[in-house]
Specification:
Rossmann fold; alpha/beta; single chain; 14 strands; 3 domains; 569 residues; 12 helices; six-stranded antiparallel sheet; elongated
Length: 569
């Protein structure tokens, strides 16, 4: 059993430097009162902060520090677990989290997160949610069990019975199933890919085995035709080369024609000049007997001799000129032959080049075909390798099928576990086991409150109410005071279940304005009678804004606001 003894806080919310201490085990019933904003509900936030590092109300951790002093926020609590005394100190600015067992500080080498986890699991034996369900009931968060949706009712019971682990396990299983299904999808894609590769490889091998020989024959036929064309071109090229040799030989016989024509032209020019001189001289001596220059008579014999010599020379030059003209005509004929031979040689060279180009093209085609034949031949030679590739693909495909079978078996297995962990599985059986005890306890507390009805919760946490006087009753049918009896009975039952199932038993129960709205109809005296006599061995704190109830509690704690700070009177 956890026995909370006292709690102290300072610089916490509206509380200043002056520490505020509340004894938690002093009296069975204690009333905490004060005006709005006086700080009477601060104890709720102080409790959850020192135990769990978070406030009860929705307050940011940084906002827990007193805004005036802005440092030195500290809360400490003392409690006993069986015979061991524990103390916790937790603060902000500076950050403090210390655990003491029998006044000895525990090892602080672990992280705050690990230390908190150890505290909840090994000392408190309850988490924040459980603590706020069975120890603290605050008006801002408390909703009576019967006013909760069915799903939320289930969560409350699962927490109390400590079976939410099955939900966590179910989430894990769902994650595994999701992962396995994703793996199955991947394997299915892999399987289809391998099937396509196997078929492609089989088709490839068939193509090699069925078409290779025909392909080689086809290419050999083309090579034979190309070789024939090469031979024809070679023969024609050879003929052209022989013709070229003959033409070049003929060209050698006439290639000096141009040179000789130039030489004969020069001779013809000189000869023409001499003829002109002789003709001029013959004409002069023929037409003149007296010298035109000195006007002396020209000797007749001299004149006759010169005329005779001119005639002789003229005749010789005429014969030479005719011979020269004949030689020139011959050379012009030879020059014409030279030009004709040159043109024929050029045409022959072009023809030879054309045949060589054709031969090169045919040889290139032959080389490509021979390369194709080599490739086909290599494929034929390597068909064993292709068969090995096919065997490897088939092995991989078989393994993929085996993996798919295994994964699908895993899905079936996890689906079975998932069905067990669902609300209708193991959890339903455990809840069904505890439902009679829950209903028994609820009705026991109802009878102690002089409310004689038969209240039952089914496996879906829907209520059935049987009354000796009325039929077809429901929770909503009752008055506010009667509803409060049911709410209290369920609250006390949950505390009892928590004690039995989770070994969570504590002296502390704090109610923050939870039932103020019902007191008018139900009666303050009746309410106090219930919490005083039904819940034994407990220290019950009631935080209320109602006045005039101080004499009905064994102890009264008052809070007020003084100069901006909350303080306990």
């Amino acid at each position: 059993m956890i026995t909370f003894k006292k709690i102290t806080w300072c610089n916490f919310l509206s509380t200043g430097n002056h520490p505020t201490t509340v004894d938690l085990d002093k009296e069975q019933t204690t009333l905490i009162i004060g005006s709005n904003g006086a700080g009477k509900s601060t104890i709720l936030d102080a409790l959850t902060f020192v135990l769990y590092g978070k406030s009860f109300r929705k307050i940011n951790k940084a906002q827990l520090i007193n805004s005036t002093n802005d440092k030195g926020c500290l809360v400490d609590i003392e409690f006993d677990v069986n015979s061991i005394n524990w103390k916790i100190k937790r603060g902000i600015k500076p950050n403090i989290f210390k655990l003491y067992r029998n006044d000895e500080e525990l090892d602080q080498s672990h992280s705050a997160l690990d230390q908190q986890k150890w505290l909840e699991q090994n000392v408190l034996k309850m988490n924040y949610k459980s603590f706020t369900q069975i120890v603290i009931l605050g008006s801002s968060t408390f909703v009576p069990f019967m006013q909760l949706p069915v799903a939320s009712r289930r969560e409350v019971v699962e927490d109390l019975l400590d079976i939410k682990i099955f939900s966590s396990m179910n989430d894990v299983i769902k994650g595994k199933i999701r992962k396995i299904r994703e793996d199955v999808k991947t394997l299915e894609l892999k399987k289809e890919g391998l099937k396509d590769k196997v078929e492609m490889q089989k088709d490839f091998i068939d193509k090699i085995e069925k078409q290779s020989k025909g392909d080689i024959k086809e290419r050999l036929t083309k090579i034979e035709k190309l070789n024939t064309n090469v031979q024809k071109c070679f023969e024609e090229s050879t003929k052209q080369e022989d013709l070229l040799l003959d033409l070049r030989k003929q060209l050698g016989d006439v290639e000096d024609a141009s040179t000789r024509l130039r030489e004969f032209g020069n001779i013809k020019g000189k000869l023409s000049q001499k003829i002109q001189i002789i003709v001029k001289e013959h004409k002069f001596f023929t037409e003149n007997t007296v010298c035109p220059t000195c006007e002396q008579d020209i000797e007749e014999s001299f004149r006759v001799n010169r005329i005779s010599d001119s005639q002789i020379k003229a005749e010789e030059l005429r014969e030479g000129y005719e011979q020269l003209q004949s030689a020139i005509q011959k050379e012009e004929l030879r020059e014409s032959q030279f030009k004709q031979l040159t043109s024929q040689i050029s045409e022959t060279l072009n023809g030879i080049s054309s045949f060589n180009v054709q031969i090169t093209g045919f040889q290139r085609q032959i080389g490509g075909l021979e390369s194709e034949i080599q490739t086909i031949t290599s494929q034929i030679e390597n068909r064993n390798t292709e068969h090995e590739k096919l065997d490897t693909l088939r092995t991989s495909l078989d393994q993929t099928y085996d993996d798919l079978v295994k994964y699908k078996d895993d899905i079936s297995y996890h689906d079975f576990i998932y069905s067990l962990l669902k609300d209708g599985g193991v959890k339903a059986k455990i809840i069904k086991k505890y439902l009679p005890l829950i209903n028994q306890q609820v009705n026991k507390y109802l009878q102690k409150m002089d409310f004689y009805i038969n209240f039952k919760l089914d496996e879906e946490f829907n209520e059935t109410v049987e009354s000796p006087i009325h039929e077809d009753f429901s929770y909503a049918s009752f008055s506010e005071g009667e509803k409060m009896r049911i709410d209290l009975s369920l609250l006390f039952t949950w505390r009892e279940i928590a004690r039995v199932k989770n070994s969570v038993n504590t002296n502390l129960l704090i109610m923050d304005e939870v039932f103020d709205s019902s007191l008018d109809g139900f009666g303050t005296d009746e309410f106090l009678k219930i919490i005083r006599y039904i819940i034994k061995d407990a220290n019950i704190f009631v935080i209320s804004h109602k006045t005039g109830m101080e004499d009905k509690f064994e102890d009264v704690v008052k809070f007020e606001k003084h100069k901006g700070f909350s303080r306990k009177l």
